[in-house]
Design goal:
two-stranded antiparallel ribbon; about 250 residues; mainly alpha
């Protein structure tokens, strides 16, 4: 080991630079996300680890940092979207928890870390991740199927593309919430007074519509391969947990 380190030092080799040079940001971020979600699955399903469950906030923060890192051509519109989505998501949850007016009657546990107004700060980050990934996912799909040269696919008008990003993205966000809800309850992230109400998903859809309208209206680069990969990783993560954890 010491010989290897000496060789690296003499040749002035920086392993981190080698990784960055040979792999794209999207590939590095995807590998990191896949690693942490795989560890999470094993920790929860195999080892029943409380430490892994209590690391959920770190995993959310890491995913958020990776999304920002992989975002191309970051501008003030991108940061405006991030900021408004975070605040809107958090305020919606604060109203929901403290009044029951939005989503239904539920409360948060202590797993997601520091809370203000009975809501973990990380929940705002969670809203950003879901809305951003769903918006990027639908935008990427539209770009692929409507690009010039693709046969047998009718070209969509600008209005229809916009509606698709907003409504299909919101539908995808609600589907993700439906997949996540029973897992989150089982792990103690939050709890409901009774069954999860349909009203919760209706409110999720409406708020997601508003945030995806904001996503579409803000002019920033919306091609991010890692965001699509993270969406797929998280869908698979919660699908596996819902299959084997919920009885």
């Amino acid at each position: 080991m010491s010989l290897l380190l000496l060789t690296i030092k003499k040749l002035n080799i920086n392993p981190l630079n080698l990784v960055i040079k040979n792999f794209s940001k999207d590939q590095i971020a995807t590998a990191i996300a896949l690693l942490f979600h795989t560890v999470g699955l094993l920790g929860i399903l195999v080892f029943k680890s409380d430490f892994i469950i209590h690391s959920t906030a770190f995993n959310l923060l890491l995913s958020f940092v990776l999304l920002v890192w992989t975002q191309k051509e970051k501008n003030h519109f991108f940061y405006l979207f991030i900021s408004l989505s975070l605040v809107t998501g958090f305020v919606s949850e604060a109203v929901g928890v403290n009044t029951g007016f939005l989503f239904g009657n539920y409360s948060y546990g202590n797993i997601l870390g520091f809370k203000w107004q009975h809501v973990p700060i990380m929940i705002g980050i969670n809203w950003v991740i879901i809305i951003y990934c769903c918006g990027i996912g639908v935008t990427t799909l539209l770009f692929r199927i409507t690009r010039p040269g693709v046969k047998d696919i009718p070209q969509l008008s600008t209005i229809l593309k916009s509606l698709s990003v907003i409504t299909d993205g919101a539908t995808l966000a609600v589907l993700f919430d439906w997949l996540m809800e029973p897992v989150a309850v089982k792990l103690g992230l939050w709890k409901w007074e009774g069954d999860i109400p349909l009203y919760n998903y209706i409110c999720w859809f409406v708020i997601s519509l508003l945030l995806l309208f904001l996503f579409h209206a803000c002019k920033f680069n919306k091609q991010n391969k890692f965001a699509v990969n993270l969406l797929l990783i998280q869908f698979l993560f919660f699908l596996i947990l819902r299959t084997f954890l919920i009885k």
